[in-house]
Amino acid sequence: MDGMKRQEFDAVSLGILWDRLISLTDEIVSTLVRTSFSTIVSESYDLSCVVLDAEANSIAQGTMSVPIFIGSAPVTARHMLDRFPAATLAPGDVIVTNDPWLGTGHLYDITMMRPVFLNGRIVAYTMSITHLPDVGGIGFGSAAAEIYQEGFRFPICKLVEAGKLNEGLIDIIRTNVRVPEQVVGDIMANIACNEVGGRQVLEFMAEYGFDDLMPLSRAIREQSERAMREKIGTLKPGTYRNSIDLEGFDGPIRFVCRVDVKRDSVAVDFDGTGPCVRAGVNVPFCYARAMALYSVKTLTLPTLPNNAGMVAPISVSAPAGCILNAQSPFATGGRHAMGHFVTPLVYGALAKAAPDRVQAESGMMNLVTFQGRHPNGRGVSTIYFAAGGYGALDGIDGASTTPHPSNMAVVPVEIWETITGMTIETKHLMPDSGGPGKQRGGLGQEVVLRNTSGSLMTMLGMGSRTRFPARGMFGGGEGRLRAHSVDGKPVNAKARVELPPGARITIREAGGGGFGPPARRAPAAVLADVENGFVTVKGALGDYGVTVDPRQGTVVRRTAKSKPKTAAKRPAAAKTAARKKTATMAPGAGR
Amino acid sequence: MYRIGVDIGGTFTDFALFDALGGRMAIHKQLTTPRDPSEAVLDGIGALLTRNAVPIDRVGDVVHGTTLVTNLVIERKGAVTGMLVTEGFRDILDMGYESRYDLYDLRLRFPAPLVPRRLRAEVVERVRGDGTVARRLDKASVQKAVTGLRRKAKIEALAVCLLHAYANPAHEQAIRKLVLKEHPDLYVSTSADVFPNMREFERWTTTTVNAYTQPMFDRYLKRLEEGLAQLGFTGRIDIMTSSGGTVTTETARRFPVRSLESGPAAGALMSAYHGRTLQIDNLLAFDMGGTTAKGALIRAGAPLKKYMMEVARVHEFKRGSGLPVRIPVIDMIEIGAGGGSLAGVDDRGLLRVGPKSAGADPGPACYGRGGAGATLTDANLVLGYLDAGFFLGGGMRLDKTAAERAIAATVATPLSLNLARAAWGMHEVINEDVARAFRIHASERGFDYRGATMVAFGGSGPVHAMAIARKLKIPRVVFPVGAGVMSALGLLVSPLSFEVAHSKRVYVDDLTAGAFAEQLGRLGDEASGFLKRAGVGTPDIAMTIRLDMRYQGQNHDIELTLPRTDDLAALFCDLPRLFAESYAETYLVSFIEEPVEIINWKVEVTGPAPNFTAGYSLGTIPTGDARSARKGSRPIYLPGPAGYVDVPVLDRYGLAPGASLTGPAIVEERESTCLIGTGDRATVDERYNLVAELAN
């Protein structure tokens, strides 16, 4: 060998060594989090750490990694090694890039890779990716028309060469960002965690007497690939299609996919998807691919650790130039706002292939940036986050106010009021907003905020689902639409709106789609929903065809003759026309 | 005078009787009586005293830890509870964090609120974040709300949860008064009283847990007090809290939520005690029982603490799937790994053990009660680490053939392993899981465990401790005497203490030294009141002040523990420097030119440490050495080419201080077995601890 022979790994040792590698990667993450400066890293965990073998196959990824980093690491690594072949690398080198097309889809994500040397030979690479607090340019959001406006882009280059920091590059970065201390601090944290990671990999190898990781890497990847192929076998083979309409800027944008499920492989193709737009929402292919991989994984083997073997049975393609394979110089800053819809697109396609596992469409999250002045005189620029309803699944009602596929956490009312000087007047669930179904979609919510700061404030929205609701599945109904209004007047959920002192903002979050025909929902479940106020008496009758008397605690299903049709359409909530072309997105949403 | 520690666990209730003067200890264990846990407590105390010929009037105090509160929540057997909230915010409990705790599991579940939506009602009022009143409390709305709730259901408890009540509790207090006047039979909990911190979802959930458990806990304590009085007990009853301090029954009744997880806290506290007597700064407390393993990190004699825990996880033991509770609590690692953990094949096609557990019934296959699944205890039996004839000191016979059958069927055959390899794999996977959990926990807290010492206890802990220590490169493991009843012992080293934590957000620049000292003085008085009412004199009260602080614009706090001082005003001038130092230490970055804010103010007061002699023995004082204590030998499985090797088996109770031995060896006591690895050297110290140094 050098190292152990493959047959030496059995179900005991492979599991232990594999888990140990993942835990080692988690420790790299923990170093990164502890040493980073920005809250994007330390609080939002918008990051990933990966260990790759000597041939740049990923073998372990930090368990907290967000979905968008699935499968991107080896691709970035290969680009890096094309530029700097392994034979030319020296101990202490750190290679870096933030190129959206070589990395993870927008300039904000910086990727660093460092070779790990043992006895003068590269035995592994460690890699870290974090979302930087700033990259200069127009600022985080979708306002840019081309990538050049979005900030600095550096090609694949060496940030550290044989242990010596490239001060010139650091100076350029420092000069071009608004919060240099945070940005440079995070870059240093990335360098530090890769150094620690390299040490950990060598300690791991010494502990188990390896002088080569390839046999273990092969065993891990083969085991993963085999498990994945086997699980793909539980999907019903066939060719499936789906399309989704999204709210764009000059009209709707259409996402189209075709998914070929074979006995042990899945192919996702986005041919037919609409073209790029002149706003910062175009999706480089690496991001579209990651979301497609995430979608397939959640339907097959959600517990399988991320590595190169896991993704091998899944191929993803998109024609160059469509919005899911955007080319330079289209702007990509807010690529997630569009990219997140890949998930419901793929679930919809695979509904018949895995009816017991797919999820109806979710209401999705909403990020609204508020800028202004706190009554104490200090400036305010912060994001209000609110979630729509979660799509229902076979046997499970959608959770209320739960985001998917992205993830954030709500800012408590008490914290929000304290840091902004605004008042939240009410925040409550909207009855009947969840799509009706055998399993009901998650409820959306209504939040009423008031500008009590005493100064003019600005609201920057990025809300979707104001025209296209979360659709149900297998006869389930759609969730209610999202809507923004100011002082009772509807406003575009993607627009920039000025809020004079005293203005009252109402944000209605979209409900999730239902699963299965509402007529088949257990009457007792409808009764419980009515008693808890999740469904009104009127909704129970209109959507579910049952007459509920909450006082008596009785529920009666209407006779077959007057039974409502499945997938009961409800009148859509206030439709909001896109009035303004410009739209801005808030920072911190890179997930 | 004697003192008694009683710890109610899921299966057993443990007792420790301690003679403060003589340094003698007696222990007792009996089955928990789930229907009324006080039955086993009273029974056991009677038995323990009779057996040791101690009259009850010689017992000065009973210190009590219990899982009763936790179980009420897990089993959802608490009181029918109503809730009053600020108008417009009735749904906060349903909305939760608006976040998924697992990114990949589409079928994740969230815990239902303890108070269903229909039993929540709104009252008209509004307090602002700075404590000023935006809208005065409409008393009629309170009367209407409570009457409405009582019409809907027979509510017994009421949680009163208003926005920003931490900043100004006046409305909550007025509601309490009003409600109790009209409904004197209701148990009322108010959020600012339970835990006056910002973040409504967490504070309100904590308050509902308090309200939901209060009636049962009150009745339980009443039965206990009456029962003890009938036995002739005239001393004091103290109740253990999750933060490692005890409180009077009066305080415990007011805050049952603070008694969640008191047993594990006591175990960690006992480990800290051992660390202090052994003068070891960095310790890992490791406790493994039947279903879970627990760990805690101890720095300079005190377990690390936190102010957040989860209770009643509903989805595969996952972090995030429980109800969040904000109370002062010892910062524990919890791993779904114990003697009953079931082995199987995971999604990758590899061996996995836990977190599913066979529990106590049917239990491991070797219990012979019909359990067909292979558990960790089965593996340890097959490997020879446990003795089929000496489980629980011989109190229960184990069926080795059944264990072999279960492992063959559920692990060895499906994974193409031989029996010994399968069993050893199960043992080793658990060692890895525990080591991993410690590594991550320590690394997230910047705790350097290399060079630290492990204290191992619980029924299954001592079998695994040495191997885990080896993985962590920890040089030393301490096996304290009485490893099976550590929590009961821990109760006896726990001082009376109480902590108040108050959210009040203020820029340091906007404060004066006087205002700073006054705010802390007020909190100190509030906390001290709980001790003074229990008879602790002012000079005996020690105060620890912690502040959660941050630079403006950041979202994460740093907890700064202030140096002990009598001159708070003088300390105030040092505050920016102290914070900058602490920040640099945590985040490895230097000073930042941003204003500094204080978010939470935390004052903990502690009474004098109870009289607990360092050296104690159980029963007869041992006199022998490793040779005389040898009971025999048996083959155990050692990893590597050797396979099964015959090793000596020693009786722990026969080892006198100074006795030493070299592994491989097995040292048995009634409730646990210490496995000493090849080349490791173990010595009994003067406090009867078995201290093992790992071979290099």
Strand-helix topology:
The complex is a heterodimer of chains A (591) and B (696).
Chain A: H1 13-35, H2 39-42, E1 47-53, E2 58-61, H3 72-83, E3 94-97, E4 109-118, E5 121-131, E6 157-161, E7 164-165, H4 167-176, H5 180-208, H6 214-232, E8 238-246, E9 253-261, E10 266-269, H7 285-300, H8 308-311, E11 314-317, H9 335-339, H10 342-349, E12 365-373, E13 379-387, H11 413-420, E14 423-429, E15 445-450, E16 457-460, E17 483-486, E18 489-491, E19 496-499, E20 504-508, H12 523-532, H13 537-544, E21 546-549, E22 554-557
Parallel strand pairs in A: 10-11
Antiparallel strand pairs in A: 1-2, 1-5, 3-4, 3-6, 4-5, 6-7, 8-9, 9-10, 12-13, 12-16, 14-15, 15-20, 16-19, 17-18, 17-20, 21-22
Helix pairs in contact in A: 1-5, 4-5, 7-10
Chain B: E1 2-8, E2 12-19, E3 24-31, H1 37-51, E4 59-66, H2 68-74, E5 81-86, H3 92-95, E6 120-123, E7 126-127, E8 133-135, H4 139-152, E9 157-161, H5 170-182, E10 187-190, H6 191-194, H7 200-231, E11 236-240, E12 246-248, H8 249-254, H9 262-277, E13 282-288, E14 293-299, E15 302-303, E16 305-306, E17 309-311, E18 323-325, E19 329-330, E20 332-335, E21 341-345, E22 351-357, H10 376-382, H11 400-412, H12 419-444, E23 453-457, H13 461-472, E24 476-479, H14 486-492, E25 497-507, H15 513-532, E26 542-551, E27 558-561, H16 568-587, E28 596-606, E29 617-618, E30 630-638, E31 643-651, E32 660-662, E33 665-668, E34 673-676, E35 681-684, E36 690-693
Parallel strand pairs in B: 1-4, 3-29, 4-11, 5-6, 5-9, 9-10, 13-23, 23-24, 31-33
Antiparallel strand pairs in B: 1-2, 2-3, 7-8, 11-12, 13-14, 14-15, 14-20, 16-19, 17-18, 21-22, 24-36, 25-28, 26-27, 26-28, 30-31, 32-35, 33-34, 35-36
